[in-house]
Amino acid sequence: MSKLSSFLSPCLLVLFLFLRRCIADVGTAAFYAPPYIPTVCYGEETGEFPPGNLFAAAGEAIWDGGAACGRFYMVRCLSSASPRACVAGGSVRVKIVDQGSALGSPPSKNGTTMVLSLEAYRRIASLRAASVNIEFMESDL
Ligand SMILES: *[C@@H]1O[C@H](CO)[C@@H](O)[C@H](O)[C@H]1NC(C)=O
Fold first, then answer.
1. pLDDT in tens, 79-91
2. Ligand 1 atom at shortest distance from the alpha carbon of 106
3. Is 11 exposed, middle or buried (0-12, 13-18, 19+ CB in 10 A)?
4. What is the reported pTM?
5. Which residues contact 64 (CB under 8 A, 6 or more apart)?
6. Cα of 111 vs its chain's centroid, Å
7. What is the pLDDT of residues 59-107, one digit of tens each?
8. What domains are defined for the chain?
9. Pfam families given for it (predicted)?
10. Ligand 1, closest atom to CA 130?
C-alpha cells in the first residue's frame, strides 16, 4: 500500500462515519398504540425498550432486512397536512424495536418511513394528525 492510500483510508472512514451521523433524511411518521409486543426484533421481550417507551417501528425504507433493529434515530416534525400539528421545537430520539408492516396494533397511517409509539409521537406532534413529515438522522450517541 502506498503512503498516500494508507493515509487516506482512515480519513475516508472518519468522513463516512461523520457524514452518516450528520446528514438528515426526510420522510413520514405515523403512530401506533399498545399492545407493543410481540415485536419482530425482540419477541415478547420488553427489556430492550427504552425508558418512556421512546421507540418506533421501521418502515420498509429503513427496515434494512432487520438490520434496523436496535438503531437509534433523532426525529423532528417538519410539517403536516393537519394545521399546526407539529410541536414547535420538538424532537425525540427513538430506538427501532419493530417492523412497521408487521405491527399487531394498526398504525395511524400505512406505509410511512417510521411508526412511532404514542409516547414518542406526542413529543413531536399532535395525535390529531395521523401522520407528519419528519426529518430524521441516525444517532449512535
Ligand atoms: C392499513 O392497511 C391495512 C391492511 O391492508 C388496512 O386494514 C388498514 O385499514 C390500513 N390502515 C389505514 C390507516 O389506512
1. 999 999 999 989 9
2. 11
3. exposed
4. 0.85
5. 58
6. 14
7. 999 999 999 999 999 999 999 999 999 999 899 999 999 999 999 999 9
8. 24-138 (2.40.40.10)
9. DPBB_1
10. 13
